[in-house]
Amino acid sequence: MPTYPPGSAERKAIDEALVEMKKQMPFEVPCVINGKEIKTGNKLKQLTPDSVNTAPLCEYHAATPELVTEAIEGAVKVQKAWAATSWYDRATIFLKAAALVSGKYRNQLIAATMLGQGKNVWQADIDAIAELADFFKFSVKLVDDGYKNQPLITPDDAVNRIEYRPLEGFVLAVSPFNFTAIGGNLVTVPSILGGVCVWKPSPMATYANYLTHKILLEAGVPGSVIQFVPGDAPQIVDQCLSHRDFAALHFTGSTDVLRSLWTKIGSQMTTYRSYPRIIGETGGKNFHLIHKSADIKATVIHCIRSGFEYCGQKCSALSRLYIPRSLYEAGWLDEFVKQTKEIKVGPVTDHVNFTGPVINEASFDRILKLINQAKEEGGKILAGGSGDKSQGYFVEPTIILTEDPHSLTMKKEVFGPVVTAYVYEDDKWAETCDLIDNTTDYALTGSVFSNDRAALAEASELLRNAAGSLGSGTNDKSGTWAHFSRFVSARTIKENFGADPTDFRHPSNLA
């Protein structure tokens, strides 16, 4: 990855792309049904969260119920032909898509992600280029390896094999705002296997997702295989979930929304042709557990990056922090506060800003409300604690010190630049691990920092169920064959070529 230092060619190229994109705003984004761009006239806006008083990044046409029906029917109709396409041809399409992401569309995708989703150039490159291109490439590798998973033993007079068929019907992909790459991955996983998708993008990531869809079409994905239907989420999702050919939900978003959709799917089981799969990634409450042997300087840097890069708008962002008494007295928290106060916050087009905006006004208001509630509970604000939404949705990187390990911001997902710290006694290492494991319903990510190997081993065992996606969705491990396997319906085939039997009776039946 390029590092975009001052005066570099890559920084100059991005600045030029940003200037050019701003000149053309707002872009007009259509629905794309069966490969054709359709404008409904009902236009909604995707704002730039760091400059809300300027033109929106794009105006997108909301899909009508009739278009959603057309998208579903078009996808289902083309499925058999797409599934029959050779694996070599499907694989080549996604490898070409990776090349387009990292080549032709590189600066355009980065600029769209920066302006539309409020990411600085480093975060945007990680997401929209490195991760998206890797998703496309690794998908080819993982599926190729997965198809080779065949029975290990076959008899001499027969051949056994497994055919990995795509799911019958369509997959509904509902993608989030915070990662351009996730949208690309949600539609790639089922479609590279020969399945078909209806893609409902986030309103706050519409333009970057539209460019991703454009790349997939240019790479050779048939127009009906991935249908692009921006618009009203409840209406589109409800219509898709009520359709007989609904085969799977591929979702990334909030825990409450996934639970609601799961309940709805369960209540409609008699509607469906088969048993729909549910594959979801939801919220998180990332913990950092610092051991008394850990290095102060290194762990402070890790915590700042984890907690405040991209304004904490990742389900993997540091949210709850556990500090041993000895390091606290040695000044660990003082150093964390000092460096946090040095963070520059502002528009992503100014590269000195480490932290940009939160995604929209609703998020801004919710985060400030949680900070105020933490103060009312007795939490001590050591840094930040306020925000300004007059020009963009900027929330100061905030550190809260609590004496209650079960306080509001130690349990509730914030999805913003807020880290709550708790000081534990050095000799309570095992008890603190147990506390971490039993504080929230979330168990997505966590980190343990120690230079004591025995302490690391103990924490790894005690925190076995505290992280690893467990409890934060369906734990299907994106980037593994396990994830892809959820979108296939395996068929076992046995071909006999031994001698035909001459009597229906077995030897055991003879007198």
TrEMBL record:
Listed Gene3D superfamilies: Aldehyde Dehydrogenase, Chain A, domain 1, Aldehyde Dehydrogenase, Chain A, domain 2
Signal sequence segment: none
Reaction(s) the record says it catalyses: L-glutamate 5-semialdehyde + NAD(+) + H2O = L-glutamate + NADH + 2 H(+)
Pfam families named in the record: Aldedh
Pathway(s) served: Amino-acid degradation; L-proline degradation into L-glutamate; L-glutamate from L-proline: step 2/2
One GO term of the biological process aspect: L-proline catabolic process to L-glutamate
Domain Aldehyde dehydrogenase: 52-463
Keyword field contains NAD: yes
E.C. designation(s): 1.2.1.88
One Gene Ontology cellular component annotation held by this UniProt entry: mitochondrial matrix
Name of the featured protein: L-glutamate gamma-semialdehyde dehydrogenase
Native species: Kwoniella dendrophila CBS 6074
